[in-house]
Specification:
The chain is of the alpha+beta class. The protein is built from 17 helices and 14 strands. The chain folds into two domains: 279 residues, Butyryl-CoA Dehydrogenase, subunit A, domain 2; 192 residues, Butyryl-CoA Dehydrogenase, subunit A, domain 3 (Up-down Bundle), CATH 1.20.140.10. The strands form four sheets. It has a six-stranded mixed β-sheet with strand order 2-1-10-11-7-6, with no helix packed on it. A four-stranded mixed β-sheet has the order 5-8-9-12. Strands 3-4 form a two-stranded antiparallel ribbon. The radius of gyration is 24 Å and the shape is globular. It starts with 22 loop residues before the first helix and ends with a helix. The protein binds flavin-adenine dinucleotide. Keywords: FAD, Flavoprotein, Oxidoreductase. Pfam families: HpaB, HpaB_N. It comes from Rhodovarius crocodyli. This is 4-hydroxyphenylacetate 3-hydroxylase.
Length: 499
């Protein structure tokens, strides 16, 4: 059994916030002994391994942007205790202007990858910001858990930490609850308690960007039943904890060595990690929920955590849709179809879907409400309305682009080498350009489009947009809980009463 966990460096709160981390600091921190398994082998250093180096460099830019004095106001706020700069993601918002400032910071980070890195460091940090805003939910399990969550939030905030999460049990047998699986240690759960902490074993899915994060939050958003108490936990685990193994799905960057041919897969494959925990020890101060079904459920819905985290997710999605619109427009221009009225109608439908998401993002802010402690909560009805339709609207948008491009993305040469070889360059340059751009420019554009919607990277993104916020039937249930049925039925009742 493992008995210690190494905290990531620079974790002291005593001296107040640490200096903002740079991209170089972030890249250096990845070489910390974390156990990432690819193709049956342990990765020596995530920052330099070909599967992850491109996305690591892209992620490093996020840290540099936040540390740039010119971006201070956009990306950070003054720590309430010391006045030093802290990432906006950790700001507990009190006003509509605070909420907007947080959204703009997320927008800036999302633009680094055109919205293609989903779990930037502002996603799960916003969940912890929501927990720290309403620690009473955690106090239902004992005051110490509320204290732990507030202290841990402060520790992450002051040290500019990146956390990701794995909050869904593995899909082993969904017909049975956690405690009735064939082996009680298949799902991540408590196997031992000591004076110093708890020991957790089992598996959990699916920590997107887990290979790059400082910490992984292991909890459960999946419905749990009485008898499942061992799995009703909320714990913070350092990515290099002894006993923790990360299994990323197939890294697309390994099949995408050339940035010209694979412009997105080579730079923005954030990875999604299946976790295996083998007797991982977690000190009590990193335990926020302990064998408590009610707190495990309420953490998502009775704190603003889910709303803050998904406000970031929607800001990121709006950026991605903007990029998608730009791509579609440039492709129509390249094929000479841009002025065709039929094409403009299809583009109008695409634009309507994209604009709806953007407007619903703003609605979350405009319709936000302030609770009795002065904390502002984004409007969850607006959030879940747009999220609930995402699993249907996103494939519709991708399909419109497929319609518009015909074979343009496919009738391209095999690789950049065809632009270099004397045997092929003549044909490529003569036949593969368009009326408005040369062959190299057109091939680059179509490669971008293919990587966006057609490549393995593009297809994983479609799965991501369907599932990152949970299966759509669950999001629709959230919407059901948030809709103002009282007002709606009152209208009907008044009419029936003849008023
Ligand atoms: C690319 C990607 C990235 C992800 N990133 C993260 C992450 O960072 N952290 C994390 O914790 N999780 C992440 N997830 C996991 C995600 O949270 C889960 O995939 C999601 O919650 C759905 O759970 P599941 O995959 O176990 O599907 P299941 O719950 O098994 O459901 C699969 C399908 O079965 C059907 N179904 C099952 N039960 C019902 C029901 N009661 N009513 C109606 N239909 C039903 C539905 O069609 C549903 O879509 C990610 C997933 C993907 C695909």
């Amino acid at each position: 059994m493992s008995i210690t966990t190494e905290a990531p460096p620079a974790q002291s709160r005593a001296k107040g916030p640490a200096p903002l981390r740079t991209g170089a600091d972030f890249l250096a921190s990845l070489d910390d002994g974390r156990c990432v398994m690819v193709d049956g082998e342990r990765v020596k250093n995530v920052a330099t391994h070909p599967a992850f180096a491109g996305a690591a460099r892209s992620s490093a830019k996020l840290f540099d942007i936040a540390a740039d004095p010119a971006m201070r106001d956009r990306m950070t706020y003054a720590c309430p205790e010391t006045g030093k700069p802290i990432w906006r993601a950790y700001q507990i918002p009190k006003t509509h202007a605070d909420l907007k400032a947080k959204r703009l910071a997320s927008e800036t980070w999302s633009e680094v990858s055109h919205g293609l890195i989903g779990r930037t460091p502002d996603h799960v940090s916003n969940f912890f910001t929501g927990y720290a805003a309403v620690p009473e939910v955690f106090a239902q399990g004992g005051q110490q858990y509320a204290d732990n969550v507030v202290n841990f939030y402060g520790r992450m905030r002051d040290n500019h930490q990146w956390m990701t999460y794995a909050i869904v049990p593995p899909q082993i047998d969904r017909s049975k609850p956690a405690h009735q699986q064939t082996d009680p240690t298949l799902y991540a759960g408590v196997v031992k308690e000591t004076d110093a902490g708890i020991v957790v074993s089992g598996a959990q899915q699916l920590a997107t960007a887990g290979v790059f994060s400082d910490w992984i939050y292991v909890s459960c958003i999946h419905p749990l039943r009485p008898g499942d108490e061992n799995y009703a936990i909320g714990v913070a685990i350092p990515a290099n904890a002894p006993g923790l193994k990360l299994y990323p799905r197939r890294p697309f960057a390994l099949q995408a060595p050339d940035a010209f041919d694979n412009p997105l897969s080579s730079k923005y494959d954030e990875s999604d990690c299946f976790l295996v925990l083998d007797n991982v020890f977690i000190p009590w101060e990193q335990v926020f929920i302990y064998r408590n079904l009610q707190v495990c459920f309420e953490q998502w819905w009775k704190t603003p955590s889910h709303a803050y985290g998904n406000l970031q997710a929607q800001a990121r999605y709006v950026t991605k849709l903007r990029f998608m619109m730009g791509l579609a427009k440039r492709m129509n221009e390249a094929t000479g179809n841009d002025a065709n009225p039929a094409v403009q109608i299809q583009m109008g439908e695409l634009a309507a879907l994209a604009q709806t998401v953007e407007t619903m993002l703003e609605a979350q802010e405009i319709r936000a409400t302030i609770d009795d402690k002065g904390v502002i909560w984004p409007c969850r009805a607006s959030l879940y309305a747009v999220m609930a339709l995402q699993s249907e609207n996103n494939p519709r948008m991708v399909d419109i682009i497929r319609e518009l491009t015909g074979a343009a993305m496919i009738s391209m040469p095999s690789s950049v080498k065809d632009l270099q070889s004397p045997e092929t360059v003549g044909d490529v340059e003569r036949y593969m350009g368009s009326g408005v751009m040369g062959a190299k420019e057109r091939i680059a554009l179509m490669r971008l489009a293919w990587d966006f919607i057609g490549s393995e990277f593009g297809n994983r993104h479609q799965q991501y947009e369907k599932f990152y916020g949970g299966a759509s039937f669950l999001v629709k249930q959230n919407m059901y809980r948030c809709y103002d049925f009282k007002r709606a039925t009152a209208m009907v009742d008044r009419e029936l009463a003849g008023e």
